[in-house]
């Protein structure tokens, strides 16, 4: 299982997250985000974190050319896409980069559910308001959570283990509950989150899931 620390805005936070054991860092390029970074900052932070840490560019609403130019300048290794998007657009991005396609629970039963099992695209189930710190209803998702999907939405050190035990995601992703303030990570919270997620993943095969 992979652990992603999203909303990284500085070299300091990138290096600390990598040292804590994060598998991936998220750099947000969505224009209206409080955690918006430039490609240069993302590139420098990602390179300082080390080559073993994946670097994910997070986009919402940008055109294909802008996404690809930004991703290239930032030297990301994957792209995360939010918002309503044409299927062709997602496939075009996936021709260049591995894609995390962020969906809401309500999307799973609709046309967006097609991304389950499509090569190059991994579903990331997120809250309707990404970055808002509100957890999803995990119990309601147990029967519909896509195999191999990632989980986001209100995850933090205090609840990530329970989420992993219940839904068995392939990866977990957190932002707001790992911050001292918007755009600045709390190193202790990051470390506790990574440790709790890794420990839960290692032990989940031997534990009883809540009924």
Describe the structure in brief.
The chain is of the alpha/beta class and 211 residues long. 33% of the residues lie in helices and 20% in strands. It has a single domain, classed as TIM Barrel (Alpha-Beta Barrel), CATH 3.20.20.70.
Structure description:
This protein is an alpha/beta fold and 211 residues long. Helices cover 33% and strands 20% of the residues. The chain has helices at 11-20, 39-49, 64-74, 87-94, 138-141, 160-167, 187-203, and strands at residues 2-5, 24-28, 54-60, 78-82, 99-103, 121-125, 150-151, 171-174, 179-181, 184-185. An eight-stranded parallel β-barrel has the order 1-2-3-4-5-6-7-8, surrounded by five helices. It has a two-stranded antiparallel sheet with strand order 9-10. Helix 2 packs across helix 3 (64-74) and helix 6 (160-167) packs parallel to helix 7. The protein is globular. Keywords: Amino-acid biosynthesis, Aromatic amino acid biosynthesis, Isomerase, Tryptophan biosynthesis. Its EC number is 5.3.1.24. Pathway: Amino-acid biosynthesis; L-tryptophan biosynthesis; L-tryptophan from chorismate: step 3/5.
């Amino acid at each position: 299982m992979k652990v992603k620390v999203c909303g990284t805005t500085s070299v300091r936070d990138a290096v600390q997250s990598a040292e804590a054991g994060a598998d991936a860092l998220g750099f947000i390029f969505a224009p209206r985000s409080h955690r918006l970074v430039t490609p240069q900052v993302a590139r420098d932070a990602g390179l300082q974190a080390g080559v073993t840490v994946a670097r994910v560019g997070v986009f919402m609403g940008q055109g294909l050319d802008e996404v690809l130019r930004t991703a290239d300048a930032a030297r990301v290794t994957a792209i995360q896409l939010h918002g309503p998007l044409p299927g062709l657009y997602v496939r075009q991005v996936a021709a260049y980069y591995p894609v995390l396609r962020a969906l809401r629970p309500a999307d799973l039963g609709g046309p967006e559910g097609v991304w389950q099992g499509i090569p190059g695209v991994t579903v990331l189930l997120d809250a309707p308001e990404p970055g808002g710190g509100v957890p999803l209803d995990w119990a309601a998702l147990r029967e519909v959570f896509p195999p191999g999907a990632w989980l986001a939405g209100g995850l933090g050190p205090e609840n990530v283990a329970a989420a992993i035990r219940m839904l068995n995601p392939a990866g977990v992703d957190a932002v707001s509950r790992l911050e001292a303030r918007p755009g600045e990570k709390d190193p202790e919270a990051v470390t506790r989150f990574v440790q709790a997620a890794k420990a839960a993943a290692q032990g989940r095969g031997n534990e009883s899931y809540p009924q």
